[in-house]
Amino acid sequence: MIPADADEEVLTSEEIARKYKVDLSKVAYWSDAEGFPEGWPSGPGRTLVRVASEVDDWLRTNLPVFWAQGQESDNPYGLEEGKPKDLVSLERIAEFEAKALGRDEPIPMATLRGYRSKKSMPEADRNPGDGLRPEVMRPMWFRQTAYDWVNRPRKSMRRQKKAGARAEAPAPVERRPREQASGPVASTRVDVDGIAARYAITLPTARRWTETENFPLTDGTDYDAAAVDAWVWSERRRAWEAAQRRSATSAGGSVGAEGATAGAEREPPAAGAAGELTLKEIGPRYGVPVPTGEAWSRVEAKGEDGRIVRRPFPDPLRTRPRVWDQHEVDDWVREARPHVWASFMGTGPVLLNPLPEGDPRDLLDVDDFAEIWGIATRGAPLEPGTVSAYHNRGQIPYADRTPDDGLSPRVLSYHWYRETVYDVISSRRGKGNKRPRA
């Protein structure tokens, strides 16, 4: 998701590394530091992006030497103007270096003499007795030589401190506390298949999760289950909450109870004198296409942890031709397809879970769209490919933002405003009819 107020340029970690001329590992190191701008997943592979100006401000305050490397300027530190051949002393260079490091006091002379002995600082351009004019009484450097050295690329991983304090490694970052799951994690280790099963997502979705930048590290075969649960709680909250609800209802109860209550307010229309439905009559009775009704008839039971999480479609009364008891089909649709049942009964859309709060102008990508839609209507995220297929067929509005559309913030994939997504979810009642794209 891209927040509504993110109206500035955004950068991926790779782009941050290129801009500030550092390795990608250094950007990962920065991301663990206190106060570093939060990122959010966007685009293919759910790549983390951050607001460029926030990253720049953080580096300017905390790591000015790296900040300078990202500025399109020959004098990013604002060093005093002068001619390239002006002669400056080692004491003046100590002041220049302090300004680059964000310090108020000059760098100790012993430090600069150490740089000279290690050959990490250029030799003086002028020395006493070199026979040149004007005569110098101590080593001197041309201003251009000094400035080029001060503006050099920096490799140090140490965090610079202000007001003359010593540069030292940053203190361990205090991690935000994680809420604990309502039930214990079944195993200390879990593989991709286990992640998919625990959170009721598809294997491709689970694999995409594991490829996200801040997903817990693997030992080559599987992952720490507690770390995965903490990550899902933080980054995929709706999937985490759905997993807790499934665990809490393992003793019984139906997630479609609200839908059943809403649908019980009026009697469903009769389906014929005998109260029977043929295969071709199932879809039209509930206002969905015939192929949808046929697909329902093939739904089989699904078990998880020794309990039924998906109710099978009723068995037919007869097989030649196949006919079903209308009341049994009504009961199945009421529980398994509450949004279709709500449309059929004229009671409006039924959401198993409320839509999450957020700014109407937040930008959501296809993964966000699928997750919110699925959690709200079915209790589990949809496959992103399903939403993409709807989009390609014109069954949902065309994306509000597209890559390289020249608008701000930049997006790396199709994005919709939150209000567009919620309009789709609230207005679709299961008919599945293709409507022309606006």
User: Proportion of β residues?
Assistant: 5-15%
- Report the uncertain regions: 157-187, 251-266, 430-438
Estimate the helix proportion, in percent.
Answer: 25-40%
Mean pLDDT across every amino acid position = 76
Distance between the termini: 24 Å
Number of strands: 14
Side by side, the strands of the main sheet go 1-3-2
How many helix segments? 19
Report the structural category: mainly alpha
> Describe the biggest sheet?
3 strands, antiparallel
Net shape: elongated
What this model shows, in words?
- It is a single chain.
- This protein has 438 residues and is mainly alpha-helical.
- The protein is built from 19 helices and 14 strands.
- The strands form six sheets. Strands 1-3-2 form a three-stranded antiparallel beta sheet.
- A hairpin with a 4-residue loop joins strand 2 and strand 3.
- Helix 8 packs across helix 9, helix 10 crosses helix 11 and helix 17 packs across helix 18.
- The C terminus is likely disordered.
Summarize the SSE layout with pairings.
Blueprint: E1 10-12, H1 13-19, H2 24-31, E2 40-42, E3 47-51, H3 52-62, H4 64-69, E4 87-88, H5 90-100, H6 109-117, E5 141-142, H7 143-150, E6 189-190, H8 192-198, H9 203-210, E7 223-224, H10 225-235, H11 237-248, H12 257-263, E8 276-278, H13 279-285, H14 290-296, E9 302-304, E10 307-310, E11 318-319, E12 322-325, H15 326-336, H16 338-345, E13 363-365, H17 366-377, H18 384-392, E14 415-417, H19 418-427
Antiparallel strand pairs: 1-3, 2-3, 4-5, 6-7, 8-12, 9-10, 11-12, 13-14
Helix pairs in contact: 1-2, 8-9, 10-11, 12-16, 13-14, 15-16, 17-18
